Amino acid sequence: MIHRYRPIIPLAGAGQPPGCPLSFPIFPSYRRFLSKWKGLFIKLKAIMHTPAATRYDSPNFYRRCGRSGVRLPLISLGLWHNFGGQDSYENARAIACRAFDLGITHFDLANNYGPPAGSAEESFGRILREDLGRWRDELIISTKAGYDMWPGPYGDWGSRKYLLASLDQSLQRMGLAYVDIFYSHRPDPETPLEETMGALAHAVRSGKALYAGLSNYKPAETARAAKILRDLGTPCLIHQPRYSMLDRWVEPQLLATLEAEGIGGIVFSPLAKGILTDRYFKGIPADSRAGHDKRFLRPADITDAVLTKTKKLNDLAQSRGQTLAQLALAWVLRHKTVTSALIGASKMSQVDDCVGATRNLNFTGEELARIEKILAE
User: Fold this and answer.
1) Are the C-beta atoms of residues 164 and 145 closer than 8 Å to each other?
2) Omega within 30 of 0 (cis) for the link into 51
3) Quick check: 84 pLDDT over 50?
4) At the top level of CATH, which class does the domain 62-274+335-345 belong to?
5) What is the pLDDT of residue 220?
């Protein structure tokens, strides 16, 4: 039934919403609605982030990932903290957009990042929809599965069932057709490695991921996993271990394994959860990780002995014209096997500071010896 009011709105020239059919009947009162809709659309378009035109002005900011064709930024942004449902979305959005402005093209997530679990992917999905999605082809987006995500026997560890179901959920939360990298977040001692790697290979062959990655795998596990993936025709692109001046378990064997296998390294917690910054020199700020989120960093972890070391390292950093955070990032990036250092940030200025580390990645033998002496004290 056609309503007696039937003004015809042509496709072009009347300011109707995008995707409107050639013509349709409309109630007169809807004219005001369409006018408001058009105004809202214009306002939304005006506040969408426009990336800086200078974001690729430093080609040396990108390093090849192993023996692949992929280059990653020396500094990548991790969404482990400060992007969850309990955090400020506007702050998360500002951090992500600022990172892209500075040339950071890699955004790293996992299914359980939040809190609550999954909410970091939801927040990033919103950032993509509202701001960065138009530049999807300029982004490397990763996610992972391997830690506890949902109740029951299929929401944890490394089974094919869990990994592939989790990937589908991650894609839905972010509104993506694929991720660039899909990781096994940790080895599963009770699931055959062939099953876990087979799930990663299937994710790549299905088009839901472009590359496979490992995280938290020890050297022997890494070498075996890499062989399985290579035999399946989906070579391992990248390994994500924890590494910093205060946590050096990757030396020397894992780094040597990555080099031999042609796998890139992207290290997380290079700032030792914020300890390798000047954040705690005058106590524990209320808005710091140790001050308000004690799940991963407790005030008891920031001992006098640790502060003595970090203050001496800070003196060395200043002599190099760097902050302590910049020194710590440059130190992990001195290894060519380390493709990228994965940072977290609670404010935009921290992203700027971390990217500033790449202006001086060279160390003299004397500086390296001094660092070793401080760390050994």
Assistant:
1) no
2) no
3) yes
4) alpha beta
5) 98
Pick from 309, 377, 348, 344: nearest CA to 107: 344
Q: What are phi and psi of 318, to 5 degrees?
A: -65, -35
What is the average pLDDT across 342-355?
97
**Residue positions counted in the chain:** 377
Angle, CA 94 vertex, CA 331 and CA 90 arms, to 5°: 135
Domain boundaries, the chain: 1-42, 62-274+335-345
Which residue is listed with tokens 């997530």? 109
Among 72, 77, 76, smallest CA distance to 60 is for 72
**What's the pTM value of the predicted model, to 2 decimals?**
0.86
214 closest CA partner among 166, 164, 158, 170: 158
Q: How many CB atoms lie within 10 A of CB 94?
A: 16
Q: What is the pLDDT of residue 50?
A: 96
Q: How far apart are CA 267 and CA 263, in angstroms?
A: 13
